[in-house]
Each structure stands twice: as structure tokens, then as C-alpha cells.
Design a protein that fits this description.
Length: 213
């Protein structure tokens, strides 16, 4: 975790927390109340510093009533205020929701997020090498693609063939950005396959009139 220390005077000089977005001041990204003490409300503020252009998260307090007007927003921090450098990242969030028979991308992604959490609980996250980009892996792409196309051409293509091509293409990539893009495609095909299984299950549970005949 990357942090930076500001003095209260340095924060005041760039308008944090009450005079943001002015000339030479920090830019407000988000400011929200996250809790309350006996006489104060606790805010979580994310701002972009004018000197380095980075985004930082800090906590400050304001009086809960007019009798606490003028309270030092940093009075719990001491001589300096710790600011955590942050970046915007899209994330899957697990939450409690009403029970439904949800089928489709939203339900699948929720299951994937739960499985990721279970894996992280069982095995501590760690970095592995990619192990991609060899000549033999590049040849596997053509072999997998040819098999998929041949089987599709005679009406025997399967999800295994579709996913196999995407996995082979990912394994053949050495460039990190292209590898990441291929892995997204792998996940998309796997999700589509799960959706297809769910649709078949729904059809079996609720047969149409044509099926009954």
C-alpha cells in the first residue's frame, strides 16, 4: 500500500477538505460520510493532488451539530495526515440479495466471484509465471482452430472446441496486454457455455408445448 504524509497546513493550502476544485487546489473525486462519532460525522474523501496528479484517500471529521462548528477536521491524526494512494478499478462485489432463480451473466458472475473468494480462502493469492508464448503453443492454436472449424463445418462442433481455441490462443501470447485480452475472451466463452447449460436446464424443467407433443 502506497501512502503519503501531509501536514494539515499542506492540505489546507490545496483546499482539502473544504475548498476543493479551486485554482491551484486539489480536485475532488468523491466525498462521502462513512460513519459517525458522538459529536462528529466521519468523511472519506478521495482527491487528486495538484502537484503529482495522483489520487489519495483520507478521512476527516466535521461537527454533527452547529455546536461543533469549527472543529479541526484532522484532530484524530496528529502532526501529519496519512493519505493512501488509490486508483479506480472495476471489481465484482459479493452482496446479500433476495433469493431468485437467476440465470444469465449476472448469476454466473456472482458464482464466479464466490468461487474466487473460496479459492483465495483456501490458497493464499500468489504470483505465478505465465508460461506462455512458446513455438509449440503457437502451433497448437492452428491445430485447435482447424479442428473446431472442421467439426463446425459438419455440424459436430462443441463448446469444448470453442473454448479450446481460446485457451490455445491465450497460451500462445507472450505480450502481457494481448495475453490479458485473450484471457478475457476465455472467460467470456466459459461464461457463455455456463449460460447454455443453464438454458438447457430451464428447458428441461419447463418443457414447451412443442416438446410435450
Amino acid at each position: 500500500m502506497t501512502t503519503r504524509r501531509f501536514t494539515p497546513a499542506a492540505l489546507e493550502a490545496i483546499g482539502v477538505p473544504f475548498e476543493l476544485d479551486g485554482d491551484g487546489c486539489a480536485a475532488e473525486i468523491r466525498d462521502r460520510v462513512i460513519g459517525s462519532e458522538r459529536w462528529t460525522h466521519v468523511h472519506e474523501l478521495i482527491f487528486r493532488a495538484p502537484d503529482d496528479g495522483k489520487a489519495y484517500l483520507v478521512h476527516y471529521e466535521v461537527g454533527a451539530t452547529e455546536h461543533q462548528d469549527g472543529i479541526d477536521p484532522w484532530h484524530r491524526h496528529g502532526a501529519t495526515v496519512k493519505a493512501v494512494e488509490v486508483v479506480e478499478r472495476h471489481a465484482l462485489v459479493t452482496r446479500w440479495a433476495p433469493v431468485t432463480d437467476e440465470v444469465g451473466p449476472a448469476g454466473v458472475l456472482g458464482e464466479i466471484a464466490a468461487e474466487r473468494s473460496a479459492q483465495n480462502a483456501r490458497w493464499a493469492p500468489h504470483d505465478l509465471t505465465d508460461g506462455t508464448g512458446s513455438k509449440s503453443q503457437a502451433l497448437d492454436v492452428e491445430s485447435a482452430r482447424r479442428q473446431r472449424d472442421d467439426l463446425l463445418g459438419i455440424g459436430y462442433g462443441t463448446w469444448v472446441d470453442a473454448l479450446g481455441v481460446q485457451v490455445a490462443k491465450a497460451a500462445a501470447e507472450r505480450d502481457p496486454q494481448r495475453l490479458r485480452a485473450e484471457l478475457v475472451r476465455v472467460a467470456a466463452v466459459a461464461t457463455a457455455w455456463i449460460d447454455a447449460i443453464d438454458r438447457r436446464s430451464c428447458t428441461a424443467d419447463h418443457p414447451t408445448e412443442e416438446t410435450i407433443r
